[in-house]
Automatic annotation (TrEMBL):
SMART domains membership: UDPG_MGDP_dh_C (SM00984)
Enzyme Commission code: 1.1.1.22
Pfam families: UDPG_MGDP_dh (PF00984), UDPG_MGDP_dh_C (PF03720), UDPG_MGDP_dh_N (PF03721)
Species annotation: Halobacillus amylolyticus
Protein name in UniProt: UDP-glucose 6-dehydrogenase
Pathway stated in the Swiss-Prot or TrEMBL entry: Nucleotide-sugar biosynthesis; UDP-alpha-D-glucuronate biosynthesis; UDP-alpha-D-glucuronate from UDP-alpha-D-glucose: step 1/1
Family matches, as PANTHER family: UDP-GLUCOSE 6-DEHYDROGENASE TUAD, UDP-GLUCOSE 6-DEHYDROGENASE YWQF
Catalytic activity: UDP-alpha-D-glucose + 2 NAD(+) + H2O = UDP-alpha-D-glucuronate + 2 NADH + 3 H(+)
Keyword NAD: yes
Enzyme class: oxidoreductase
C-alpha cells in the first residue's frame, strides 16, 4: 500500500521505516527540511539500534521516501499516519496544535478516500476532533476515516518492538478502516486488538500510567527496604514469580524519565480532572517519582556534607540505556542540583554526550570514558545502567580520591564491591562500607 507518515520523531520515523521494510511504499513527511535532506541519504536523526541500516536498505530498494512537501507526500497515499509531537503544556495537558495542523493539511490535500491513523498519544476524544476538523475543511469530495492506533514501542529497542510487540491496538468506528490497518500490519505478525476509538486512546494512557505506577511502587518499596535492611532486588524477584504481578518493570532506581511516562501520567491526571475525577493514585505516582530523583543527592550529602568544590563523576546521562534521548532524564535534575551546591561535575555517557552538551552546555565537564570521568573524583554517581558501566573493570575506581560509589541503578553486585573495598550505596539494598569504615569526607 501507499503510506504517508507525518512527523519523523521516534514514533514517526520508526513507523515509516518498519512499514517500508514489510513491503509498503512509504513517504515520511516533516517540516524540518534539513532533517529531510539527511534522512534522504539514510542518516537517522536519532540513535536507535538497527534503524539506519533499515533506512538505507529500504531507500535503496525504492520503498522509502522523505519530503517536506505535504502535497507531494499525500499525493498517492491511501493511508496517512499522524505521528507529530504532543508536547506537555505548563498545566500538564497535551498540546495538540501540531496534530490539529496536520488534520487541516490532510483536509486540504486529500484527493482520494483515505484512512488517517493517529499514532501520536492524544487525549481521549481527540480522534473525534481530528475527524471533524478534516470533515469541515475537506477540499475534495472524498471520504476520510480517522482511526486510533497508539504506539507502544520502547526507545532503544523500537525496531525490535515493531516486529515483536505484544499487541497492535486499533480503535475505529469503521469495520472497513480497521480491517485496512489490520491488513497493513499483518506482516509484522503481532496480535491485533480491535476496539472503539475512545477505548484505544485510553489503552495508551492507562498502559503507560500502569507501568509508571509499577516503577514508583517498587521505588517506595526500595526506600522501605533500605530502612529495614532488606534487599529490593530479591523482593522484586520474589514478587515477580507471581504471574499476576510479573517480573518486568520492577527495577528500583532513580525514577522514570523519557518522552512518555512523565508527560502521559500528567496528561492522564488532567484528562481525569476534565471529567471531574481526581486520579489520586496517579498523583502519588508522579510525586514519588519526583522524590526519587532527589534521593541520590541526599545520600551523597550524607556522606559528603560539604560538597562545594568536590569533584563528582556522573556515569550515564540518557534517561535509560541504548538511547541518546535526554528528555526528562533524571540526570538533568541530579546534575542541576550538584551544580547548584558548587560541585565540579565530570560526566560520561556512551551515546548521549552530544544531546547532553546541547542542554547542559559548559556547566559540566565531559569525559571521553568511564576511566577519565572517575579519575581523581571524590565520588561517582551512576545514573544510567549502560552495559559499558555495568561491565567496567572495577579497578578503574581505584583512581578515585576515595572509592565511594552512589549507584542509582543497582549496576553492581554487593559482593563485588565488598571484595574491591569500595564504599557502595545503591537503591533498596544494604550499603557496603570500605574496609576503613565510613570515613566522613568533608
Ligand atoms: C515507554 C513505554 O515502555 C512504551 O510502551 C511507550 O510507548 C513509551 O514509553 P520508553 O520511554 O522508551 O517507553 O522507556 P521505558 O523502557 O519504558 O523506560 C521508561 C523509564 O522508566 C526509564 O527512565 C527507565 O529507566 C525507567 N524504568 C523502567 C525504571 O526505573 N524501572 C524499571 O523497572 C523500568
Amino acid at each position: 500500500m501507499n503510506v504517508a507518515v507525518v512527523g519523523t520523531g521516534y514514533v514517526g520515523l520508526v513507523t515509516g521505516v518498519s512499514l517500508s521494510d514489510i513491503g509498503h511504499t512509504v513517504t515520511c513527511i516533516d517540516i524540518d527540511n534539513e532533517k529531510i535532506l539527511k534522512m534522504q541519504q539514510g542518516i537517522s536523526p536519532i540513535y536507535e539500534p538497527g534503524l539506519s541500516g533499515m533506512m538505507i536498505k529500504n531507500i535503496n530498494e525504492g520503498r522509502l521516501y522523505f519530503t517536506s512537501d505535504h502535497k507531494q507526500g499525500f499525493e498517492s497515499a491511501e493511508v496517512i499516519y499522524i505521528a507529530v509531537g504532543t508536547p506537555e503544556r505548563e498545566d500538564g495537558s497535551a498540546n495538540l496544535s501540531f496534530v490539529e495542523q496536520v488534520a487541516k493539511d490532510i483536509a486540504s490535500h486529500a484527493i482520494r478516500d483515505t484512512v488517517v491513523v493517529t499514532k501520536s498519544t492524544v487525549p481521549v476524544g481527540t480522534n473525534d476532533k481530528i475527524q471533524s476538523i478534516i470533515d469541515k475543511n475537506l477540499m475534495y469530495p472524498v471520504n476520510i476515516e480517522v482511526i486510533s492506533n497508539p504506539e507502544f514501542l520502547k526507545e532503544g529497542s523500537a525496531i525490535y518492538d515493531s516486529f515483536n510487540g505484544d499487541r497492535i491496538v486499533i480503535g475505529s468506528n469503521s469495520e472497513e478502516a480497521a480491517s485496512t490497518i489490520e491488513e497493513i500490519n499483518k506482516p509484522f505478525g503481532v496480535p491485533v486488538f480491535k476496539t472503539d476509538i475512545k477505548s484505544a486512546e485510553m489503552i495508551k494512557y492507562a498502559s503507560n500510567a500502569f507501568l509508571a505506577t509499577k516503577i514508583s511502587f517498587i521505588n517506595e518499596i526500595s526506600n522501605i527496604c533500605e530502612r529495614l535492611g532488606a534487599n529490593v532486588e530479591d523482593v522484586a524477584n520474589g514478587m515477580g514469580l507471581d504471574k499476576r504481578i510479573g517480573d518486568k518493570f520492577l527495577n528500583a532506581g532513580i525514577g522514570y524519565g523519557g518522552s512518555c511516562f512523565p508527560k502521559d501520567t500528567k496528561a492522564l491526571i488532567q484528562i481525569a480532572g476534565n471529567v471531574e475525577y481526581d486520579f489520586e493514585l496517579l498523583k502519588g505516582v508522579v510525586r514519588v517519582n519526583q522524590k526519587q530523583q532527589g534521593l541520590l543527592l541526599e545520600k551523597l550529602s550524607e556522606r559528603i556534607p560539604d560538597l562545594k568544590g568536590k569533584r563528582i563523576a556522573v556515569l550515564g546521562l540518557a534517561f535509560k540505556p541504548n538511547t541518546d534521548d535526554m528528555r526528562e532524564a533524571a540526570s538533568l535534575v541530579v546534575t542541576e542540583e550538584l551544580i547548584n551546591v558548587g560541585v565540579e561535575v565530570v560526566a560520561y555517557d556512551p551515546i548521549a554526550m552530544d544531546n547532553a552538551r546541547r542542554i547542559l552546555n559548559d556547566k559540566v565537564q565531559y569525559a571521553d570514558s568511564v576511566e577519565e570521568a572517575v579519575s581523581g573524583s571524590d565520588a561517582t554517581l551512576i545514573l544510567t545502567e549502560w552495559d559499558e558501566v555495568r561491565n567496567v573493570n572495577i579497578g578503574v575506581f581505584k583512581s578515585m580520591n576515595y572509592p565511594l560509589i552512589i549507584d542509582g541503578r543497582n549496576c553492581f553486585a554487593l559482593e563485588q564491591m565488598k571484595d574491591n573495598n569500595i564504599e557502595y550505596h545503591s537503591v533498596g539494598r544494604p550499603s557496603v562500607s570500605s574496609k576503613n569504615g565510613h570515613v566522613l569526607l568533608s
